Amino acid sequence: MKAQGDTLYHGSPDGIINKIDPTKLKPNGELGSGFYLSENPKMAGNYTKGTGEINEINIGGLKILNTSKSGLDGFVDNAIKYGSKEKYIQALKNEGYDGIRAMDKGEVVIFPESVGKIKTKSQLTDLYNQANKVDRASVKDVPADDVAKQNAELQVAKNKEDTAVYGIPKE
User: Fold this and answer.
1) 11: which of 48, 126, 132, 151 fits an S-S bond (Cβ 3.0–4.6 Å)?
2) Higher pLDDT, 12 or 163
3) Which residue has the higher pLDDT, 64 or 21?
4) Per-residue DSSP letters for 105-124?
5) Are the CB atoms for 88 and 79 separated by under 8 Å?
């Protein structure tokens, strides 16, 4: 299932992760504390420590700063300008950013406070299945003729609604 938004990759020695555990965030990475992702699945694979399990992570809807200068160099320049890496990251958070993308490395870090906004492939699949689940309990004791009648009534109502909105009756 391909989700909307950016899909990035996370390699973990723990294998496939169903939910991101905030206690396992990288505390002092090059781009600060957070959940590290890669645009390249092969690069993410370098962090699996032999498991070969690469996680697909969706970051759709997040505000990510794309470094304008060569990734890490641009980050370091700004950290110096702000006095420290921590102060620069805090300034980004204050501006509503959820993370940083180092363009030259294809690496993204999601700040700890924003980790709850990202979803694993497993979480997205569960959400999709829940949204499309038929409530079997509500229809299991309903005779098939009644279900067909209800469906026909719904279609008539839909056609009337379409006629009212578009002025063209459906046959």
Assistant:
1) 48
2) 12
3) 64
4) TTEEEE-GGGGGG-EEHHHH
5) yes
The amino acid at residue 38 is S
d(CA 43, CA 46): 5
Asked if residue 73 lies in contact with residue 80, where contact means CB atoms within 8 angstroms, the answer is no
- Alpha carbon distance 156, 47 (integer Å): 57
Reduce the DSSP state of residue 49 to 3 states and report it: coil
Helix, strand or coil for residue 166?
Answer: helix
CB 88, CB 81: distance < 8 Å? yes
Q: How far is CA 154 from CA 37, 90, 151, 168, in A?
A: 46, 53, 5, 18
The H helix count followed by the E strand count for the chain is 6, 8
* pLDDT tens digits, one per residue of 16-62: 888 888 888 888 888 888 999 999 999 999 888 888 789 899 898 89
Structure tokens at 99: 């993370």
